[in-house]
Amino acid sequence: MMYYIEQFVRNSIIGAPYGFFISIGSYLYTVVFVGNTLWIRGLAGLVGCSLYYLGISLFVASNIGVDPFNGLMLTLRDKTGWSIRRSKITMDVVLIIAGVLLGGRFGAITILTALTTGPTIQYLSQLFSRLLYGERI
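Predicted structure:
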């Protein structure tokens, strides 16, 4: 019983403010990143990717569940025995190819995100897991 109470408290601390921070981030993005220069767009992409990495890593480390997209990545990891890094890169590259075949466009931030999300999530989720639970995932 104590385990479930401890899980609830940990999950509440991490999971409860999620929507609140999404709202703040969406508002701040439009205020901070005004303009359409390459420099502003690059900085916005870097900040956005960093926050994305942080958020997904917290969700993976806290074991409170993830959205279906990242759940698919974790299922791929579990079924194949691959690392999070390899599963995420594979999934992102396949989805980029599918998007291009369907007529979509991609840019430098798309490639950067596809190649760096997996390794970053793997590293940060292990770090957060040690900090939260004293263990590795």
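Summary: The helical segments are 2-15, 18-32, 38-62, 68-80, 84-101, 108-133.
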